Predict the 3D structure of the following.
Amino acid sequence: MRPPGRLEALHFGVADYAASNRARTTNIGGLNPDYPGDQWHSAISRMTVACRAYGLRPVDGPFGDIKDPDGYIAAAKRAAALGCEGKWAIHPSQIALANDVFTPPPAEVDKAKRILVALKEAAEQGKGAAALDGRLIDAASERMASNVVKTAEAIALKIK
């Protein structure tokens, strides 16, 4: 179900979130060394779930330290792990970093395709699951693999 109007995505406004919650940080999008982990995890996870429930695309917000590409990459990878499809780039130097993180690498795409083939072959034999590289794969594996392949295909179309 999609909300009415032209809404396509939501993004996580990390600084606004931090300010509204009076979080003790002045680092936009970076981690607070006094917190044992990622203090943005819960909020980003909730946003991605809400987005998926309403057919929207979740996008992680800005990373303010434009001189810290490693920090940007780490933040983008954490967001991708939670289901975000992209991350704000507030400086031109961050564009390539975001593209690298959110574009599935060829090895991941190849593995996803192998999963789809293995499960198709298993289904033709009347099986609901299969083994690939010593691991069980099933319907959930198929959905995850399909997501990877569809993302890679969509990116490939945009590049042409």
Notes: Residues 9-102 form a domain with the TIM Barrel fold (CATH 3.20.20.60). The chain has two domains: 9-102, 106-159. Helices lie at 14-20, 41-53, 69-82, 93-102, 106-124, 139-159.
